[in-house]
């Protein structure tokens, strides 16, 4: 019984960690990870092709921090029979690792969306993503009570514990919708959307004879820009997520300064603050130049966990690059060559 108890405890610990970590997986700059947030945002940008990368190191001051990475690519597809509407298609990769046994989550998903203009300034989109995910851990990084030789603990002693399964794969489905307002005469902009993830509620257990379903995740988001003048904007952003008994809410605001706003070499600098309710205060700095955008944020832990983290929530970095094709003019005049 002495050797069975740690094994059972570890299994339950891993299973609980899977479920809790699924609740906790997030980016402070969620608005800079659009495909990870809502598949309806696939292709919802000014341009033709978009590359996005996100990196987060959470609670780096504790023994085993959370490391999260996301990368995505999406583009627009204009089809003649759709008229003014268009289709967005994309690919997203998410990876997360935490814990003494490097408990990891990897996911690759294809996303698609349909964007319908409601007017010259309003658009409605709906989308879905279909992905394959895998949970895994490394048992070689764990220690057990049978490695106690009677006098001291010896990690070099071979354990008798065995694991039949150290990874678990699953398919998943997400859907979402989004409404966008984009002024033709200013930078005023508003996005409001919602989405559902884990619609299949996949089984993520490491046990052959048990079930641990990943609960469905609901989220609602709002992102807005208000132009004050040629040089300054006020930005607002918020997200609320619910998964089983767990909730997360983030609300924030920032100010953007546009240097040389009428010039092709415009530089935009953004500074702001956000707050994750009952968890962390988030400081944000961002910069845009040409088709590049870089965001850096830092979480200052305000929850009871601050006693272990010394207030250090962790840094986060986002990078975005957009390619905009030069479209030929609708009307042109051929000049004869003499």
Question: If you had to describe this structure to a student in words, what would you say it looks like?
Answer:
The chain has 3 helices and 14 strands. It is mostly beta strands and 338 residues long. The chain has a single domain, classed as Porin (Beta Barrel), CATH 2.40.160. It has a 14-stranded antiparallel β-barrel. β8 and β9 form a beta hairpin.
Short characterization:
By secondary structure, the chain is mainly beta.
Which strand order spans the largest sheet, edge to edge or round the barrel?
A: 1-2-3-4-5-6-7-8-9-10-11-12-13-14
CATH superfamily: monomeric porin ompg
| Percent helix range | under 10%
Q: In the CATH hierarchy, what is the class?
A: Mainly Beta
Strand residue percentage: over 45%
Keywords:
mainly beta, 338 residues, 14-stranded antiparallel beta barrel, 3 helices, 9% helix, globular, Porin, disordered N terminus
């Amino acid at each position: 019984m002495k050797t069975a108890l740690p094994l059972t405890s570890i299994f339950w610990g891993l299973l609980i960690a899977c479920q809790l970590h699924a609740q906790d997986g997030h980016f402070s700059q969620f608005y800079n990870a659009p495909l990870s947030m809502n598949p309806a945002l696939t292709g919802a940008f000014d341009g033709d092709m978009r590359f996005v990368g996100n990196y987060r190191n959470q609670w780096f001051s504790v023994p085993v921090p959370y490391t999260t990475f996301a990368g995505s690519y999406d583009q627009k597809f204009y089809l003649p029979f759709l008229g003014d509407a268009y289709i967005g298609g994309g690919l997203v990769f998410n990876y997360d690792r935490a814990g003494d046994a490097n408990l990891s989550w990897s996911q690759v998903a294809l996303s698609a969306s349909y964007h319908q203009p409601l007017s010259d300034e309003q658009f409605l989109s709906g989308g879905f993503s279909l992905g394959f995910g895998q949970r895994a851990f490394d048992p070689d990084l764990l220690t057990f009570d049978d490695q106690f030789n009677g006098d001291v603990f010896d990690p070099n002693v071979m354990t008798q514990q065995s694991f039949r399964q150290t990874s678990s794969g699953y398919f998943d489905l997400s859907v979402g919708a989004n409404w966008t307002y984009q002024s033709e005469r200013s930078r005023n902009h508003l996005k409001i959307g919602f989405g559902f993830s884990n619609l299949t509620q996949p089984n993520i257990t490491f046990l052959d004879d048990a079930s641990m379903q990943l609960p469905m995740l609901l989220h609602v988001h709002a992102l807005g820009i208000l132009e004050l003048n040629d040089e300054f904007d006020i930005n607002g952003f918020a997200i609320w997520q619910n998964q089983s008994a767990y909730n997360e809410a983030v609300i924030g605001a920032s100010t953007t300064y546009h240097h040389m706003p009428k010039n092709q070499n415009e530089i935009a600098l953004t500074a702001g603050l956000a707050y994750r309710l009952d968890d962390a205060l988030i400081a944000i700095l961002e910069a845009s130049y040409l088709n590049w955008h870089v965001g850096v944020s830092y979480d200052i832990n305000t929850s009871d966990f601050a006693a272990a983290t010394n207030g250090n929530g962790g840094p986060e970095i986002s990078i975005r690059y957009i390619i905009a094709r030069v479209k030929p003019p609708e009307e042109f005049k051929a000049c004869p060559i003499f």
